[in-house]
Amino acid sequence: MSIDFSIDTEYPHVSEEEVEHLFDEEGNKIIGEKRQWLLGHKKGQAEGRAEGQAEGKTEGLRDGITLSIQNLMKKTGWDIDAAMDALDIPKAERQGYIERVAH
């Protein structure tokens, strides 16, 4: 079966691996509502992955900062405020780190 990959330029969020799912068993392009649903589903999956990755990066950064606070407190004997001062943590974010360190 020969597949026309021109769909990639129409819908760049659909990968080459996924494009095969846009064709029926005979190699004909799936059209109509089913195709629109499939394209929307694939786009939603890609957006969900990107959002999850961004959230993961943010959570990883928070974990790293929390660990840095804890390490400074342990190695220097500083209280949490002094450790956060040393790390230049903005005042608006400090309550969240106080709660994270307490747990």
Features:
103 residues, mainly alpha, 5 helices, rod-shaped
Structural class: mainly alpha
Give the low-confidence spans.
1-9
- What's the number of domains? 1
Distance between the termini: 58 Å
Based on CA inertia axes, which overall geometry fits? rod-shaped
- Could you tell me the number of beta strands? 0
Average pLDDT reading: 79
- Total of helices: 5
What is the percent of helical residues?
A: 55-70%
What integer value in Å does the Rg equal?
Answer: 24 Å
Q: Main beta sheet, described?
A: none
Strand content: under 5%
SSE ordering: HHHHH
What does this structure look like?
This protein has 103 residues and is an all-alpha fold. It has one domain (7-102). Helices cover 70% and strands 0% of the residues. The chain is built from 5 helices and no strands. It has helices at residues 7-10, 16-19, 32-76, 80-86, 91-102.
